[in-house]
Write a structure and sequence with these properties.
By secondary structure, this protein is mainly α. It has helices spanning 5-26, 32-56, 77-112, 137-141, 156-162, 170-181, 187-210, 217-220, 244-262.
Length: 263
Amino acid sequence: VPGQFILQSLVIGTSVLVVAFITLLQNPLLGSPSWLPLLAAAWAGAFVVTMLLQSTLPLPDIQRFRRLYPDSALAIENERLEATQAALFGVFAAHALLLAFSLKLKMSAALHKPDKLSRQPGAAGEGGYPGAADPYSSYKASAAPSSDFFGGVVRGSVLSSVGRALHLEGAAGLAMKRLAREGLGWVPTVGNVCTLLAFGACVYLNMYMTGGAPEAILLLAPLLLMLSQDPLLLRQLGERQRYLPPVLAISCYLTITSAVQVR
């Protein structure tokens, strides 16, 4: 965004937040689970502030940037605003994609990590330790702040009463149990949100740059393969349904574009 120092500073700041989030997620330090939700919330808030400022800040002087905008003399202000908005959407789409991919890797790592508690003698429950049948049993047994959902935003005592209602079966349930013990029970849900944000932003960019070319959805739909089963948004998305979101997105997009072209 040439000539707009405030927007440039916000883009750099949000990029630093994304790097810090990914670093702490993959290499956790003492207390880092409590910082991760704050970093994610700061990134989301900065995105909203950036888009609001983009629509209110004056555009840079055309004469100073005629080299970057060679046909600006013929362009209208709305076109320049849309170009700036598309550039910002591209940046934040890349951010959301990085966050979604990192959270997906964290889920996979939790699923394949050996469960030390299951090896303890005298362990009870399905997973080999007391309360393993309940993915939120760690919230009942521990008063540590890191065991609260989303870094303490939702208290563990609240979730313990509805833990069985949110119970996931199979591999997703096992991953949730292990992530919850680390205070990262929110990872699947936030990963799905980031994936949907990245997909939506990419669809918008396709509409802006190509006018909504139908073949682009074939490249964008595989992003939805990063969606995973979580206890809040996509409870029914099991391993057998993992290809349903991309197929559904392609079908809906092609149907809508065909209807628009026919009209």
